[in-house]
Design a protein that fits this description.
With 283 residues, the protein is α+β, with helices and mostly antiparallel strands. The chain contains eight helices and 15 strands. The radius of gyration is 19 Å and the shape is globular. The chain starts with a strand and ends with a helix. The structure holds N-(5'-phosphopyridoxyl)-D-alanine (PDD). The site of N-(5'-phosphopyridoxyl)-D-alanine has 15 residues, from helix 6 and strand 13.
Length: 283
């Protein structure tokens, strides 16, 4: 069955949904995006995603295409029209359409596209069994805190992982892990210290990361926000990733090294449960 998608004010069948070849999102990856997960038809952590959307737009001087209320109404309408029970709503804002030129006018009309994707989020095998990852060099630009659609480095990293028979890649720069191809990386060392990369322009400021950190804080668990090496990761007692589409997935193997006993660790398992529970209760 054809999905209904949203393009610049219109709900249309996906076959009819088009954007100009002169759109700067297409020509220059001059566009930002957000992915909000959906369970039981509810948008999880959506306020955080919209707040980050504004930050990304602001950093690139792209005009907001609509108010937050309007965006939420479209998200909910897409969920409704596509009978989406579990999956995600993707939202993309590009600077707009203009003849190809590196420079751009200040008053461009942004392009707004949204669509849904059906996906099993609550009980995928990756959550139950954990995932294996490989490390790859982080070859991205210096503003990874802006959620742009310039994702080619991450696509190559992910495909390298898939070709190697594993689920994902952790990107490494200057000897330390930045993040996963589309998720934030956490480890628990042999002493039980929970460690994740500090914020800055080297990683995306994950909304799920922030929610998971809030859960750790409310449980009086200390978190160390610092860079960690690949060696520390391989020697970790536990490892996991966070994102809107995975929530918390345990990592049980890094570059062929078994993490802990090779099974999902207790912290990742617990965080996953309480993240889903609390995010649903807030939604
Ligand atoms: N990716 N780091 C990167 C590089 C990401 O692409 C993502 C999300 C995250 C996690 O952020 P959040 O918790 O806000 O989803 C971290 C989305 C899911 C994607 O590109 O599909």
């Amino acid at each position: 069955m054809s999905r209904t998608v949203y393009v610049n004010g219109n709900f249309v069948a996906e076959e009819q949904a088009t954007v100009s070849v002169f759109d700067r999102g297409f020509l220059f990856a001059d566009a930002v995006y957000e992915v909000t997960s959906v369970i039981d038809g509810k948008l999880l952590d959506n306020a955080g995603h919209l707040a980050r959307l504004h930050r990304s737009l602001g950093e690139l001087n792209i005009k907001p295409p609509a108010t937050d209320d309007e965006i939420v109404r479209v998200q909910q309408e897409l969920v409704r029209r596509n009978s989406l029970d579990e999956g995600s709503v993707y939202l993309q804002v590009s600077r707009g359409v203009a003849d190809r030129d590196f420079g751009y006018a200040a008053d461009m009309t942004p392009t707004l596209v949204m669509f849904t994707q059906q996906k099993s989020l609550r009980n995928p095998p990756q959550a139950e069994k954990g995932i294996a990852v490989i490390s790859v060099p982080d070859i991205r630009w210096q503003r990874r805190d802006i959620k742009t659609v310039g994702l080619l480095a991450q696509c190559l990293a992910k495909q390298q992982a898939v070709d190697a028979g594993v689920a994902d890649a952790w990107m490494v720069e200057d000897g330390v892990v930045t993040e996963g191809s589309s998720n934030n990386a956490f480890i628990v060392d042999a002493d039980g210290n929970i460690i994740t990369r500090h914020l800055g322009n080297k990683i995306l400021h994950g909304i799920t990361r922030a929610s998971v950190i809030a859960l750790l804080e409310s449980d009086n668990r200390q978190l160390h926000e610092r860079a960690f090496t690949l060696e520390e990761a391989c020697a970790a007692r536990e490892a996991f990733v966070t994102s809107a589409t995975t929530f918390v997935w345990p990592v049980v193997e890094i570059d062929g090294h078994t993490i802990g006993d090779g099974k999902p660790g207790p912290l990742a398992t617990r965080l996953r449960e309480i993240y889903i529970e609390t995010a649903l209760a807030r939604a």
